[in-house]
Design a protein that fits this description.
3 domains, Aspartate Aminotransferase, domain 2, 4-stranded antiparallel β-sheet, 470 residues, alpha/beta, Aspartate Aminotransferase, domain 1, Arc Repressor Mutant, subunit A, 14% strand, elongated, 15 helices
Length: 470
């Protein structure tokens, strides 16, 4: 008879679970040999002083997991289970220290991050109403897997909106919704040939640069001039794809003039299968004048792939972005990704549909433009007063960041380390330089994001920045 003790006082562990765990342990340790018969349910219940139901439940779980088998009218028997190969000790199985995570402590930190947004003015009540509409109107759709490119209703709403606000010419069928620019770029470029060349602005978006490199593509950083990406550099390298941010170059903030846009569109149109990837990441925010039209709105030859996101205008955690593919690329995309599962939450997507349709999105954008413009002007003014002639602000009245150049003897490494000591989150230009660049800059350039910092924290943040730089 198998003997072990059941603690009936344990409230956290059911009796059947204790029986199951002990028997499983005996079987795996081969203390009960293969093909040996287990006691009957009645015998086991009498031995342990528990109910037959508890024993029956434990046996059924062991049977379901393959530890035992039954023979009709004879009872339960132990399966023939191989011995485990000698494994590592418990200590050796522990997660290595360098892989362990510690909770981030943001207490006392201030941020000039270009990534963050101001969530304090997000209209949560209106968004929840849109979610309620989505639940009441789309119960069936919410219980099903959405179209690989996203629900058609949502794509139609997005195509109408960007046609009105950005001049983008497209049909809903051309839109692919995804959980961010990065996965969409990965999907698009993963179906290109291994000899594909793609040019990217330098300085530019380092995360996109790394994604493209990880795909083993030939990635060509191209420098900038006062109008944006250097057209001569593009012509000399002759890439198949060109990734760029014409409406608000990231990170310098340059707004590309129409003359350079036409040059680039003509370059794309006169080559075989040349495409421009336009990342329109924060074009909703423009101060003083109307929004800059998208590059895609000038495209006459279907050579621009347009990317947009709601991460800057709504909340980054919503993870809703999209790309607009020309018909030729759309065919190729659909061929490769017809079985793809849409990654975005259908509830969030339908909520977005109603949020846009009822005008709440447009109201929110207008309100945030006024809010960000006020904060931006205050920050620029106080920076100029604090740093005097030691700062040169390269201000383009658009987006959620601007570039500031500082006269200092410190290196980028020293600035980065001092910023940590001051608990000030900043991103220097070095972070966005693509490829190797060992040259020592004359001055330090910092990308100043102003979206997340509170107005009453600006003075303190500038004081910390002054201690970092000077």
């Amino acid at each position: 008879m198998i003997k072990f003790h059941i603690d009936k006082r344990q409230k956290s562990n059911y009796i059947y679970k204790q029986i199951y765990e002990r028997l499983k342990e005996f079987i795996l340790d081969h203390k009960i040999l293969a093909n040996n018969k287990l006691p009957s349910k009645r015998e086991m219940s009498n031995e342990l002083g528990v109910s037959i139901n508890s024993v029956a439940t434990a046996y059924e779980q062991l049977l379901a997991e393959g530890y035992i088998y039954t023979v009709e009218r004879k009872g339960y028997f132990v399966e023939d289970i191989a011995h485990f190969v000698n494994g590592n000790s418990a200590k050796e199985r522990e997660l290595p220290k360098h892989l362990k995570e510690t909770p981030s402590d943001e207490k006392g930190w201030l941020s000039f991050s270009h990534i963050k947004i101001d969530h304090s003015m997000f209209p949560f009540y209106e968004w929840m109403k849109s979610q309620q509409n989505a639940i009441s109107q789309h119960t069936t759709e919410l219980s099903e897997i959405a179209h690989p490119q996203g629900p058609f209703t949502v794509r139609k709403t997005i195509s109408d909106m960007i046609g009105l606000t950005r001049g983008v010419t497209c049909e809903p069928e051309q839109i692919i919704i995804g959980t961010g620019i990065h996965p969409l770029i990965h999907q698009l470029m993963a179906i290109q040939g291994s000899n594909t060349k793609i040019a990217i602005e330098n300085p530019g978006y380092s995360r996109i640069f790394q994604i493209l490199k990880s795909l083993k593509l030939d990635v060509l950083p191209i420098g900038l001039d006062r109008d944006g990406i250097d057209i001569n550099g593009i012509k000399s390298t002759n890439p198949d794809f060109l990734f760029m941010t014409p409406s608000h170059q990231f990170p310098t903030g340059t707004i590309m003039p129409i003359s350079r846009r036409v040059e680039l569109l003509n370059w794309a149109a006169t080559g075989d299968d040349r495409y421009i990837i336009e990342d329109d990441y924060d074009s909703e925010f423009k101060y003083g004048t109307d929004n800059i039209p998208s590059l895609q709105s000038f495209d006459r030859n279907q050579r621009v792939i347009y990317f947009g996101t709601f991460s800057k205008t709504l909340l980054p955690s919503f993870r809703i972005s999209y790309m607009v593919l020309p018909p030729k690329l759309l065919e190729r995309y659909q061929f490769h990704y017809s079985d793809r599962i849409q990654g975005c939450s259908s509830l969030q997507l339908y909520a977005l549909h109603y949020f846009i349709q009822n005008g709440d999105y447009a109201k929110h954008i207008k309100r945030m433009n006024q809010h960000y413009d006020k904060k931006r002007k205050q920050l620029i003014k106080e920076l100029a007063v604090r740093f005097q002639n030691r700062i040169k602000i390269k201000d383009a009245p658009a987006g959620l960041h601007f570039l500031a150049e500082f006269d200092t003897d410190k290196s980028y490494e020293e600035v980065k380390e001092k910023a940590k000591q001051e608990k000030l989150e900043i991103y220097t230009m070095k972070h966005f330089l693509l490829g190797d660049d060992d040259s020592k800059p004359k001055n330090i350039e910092i990308v100043i994001g102003f979206a997340s910092i509170k107005e009453d924290e600006i003075a303190e943040a500038i004081d910390r920045l002054y201690r970092v730089i000077c």
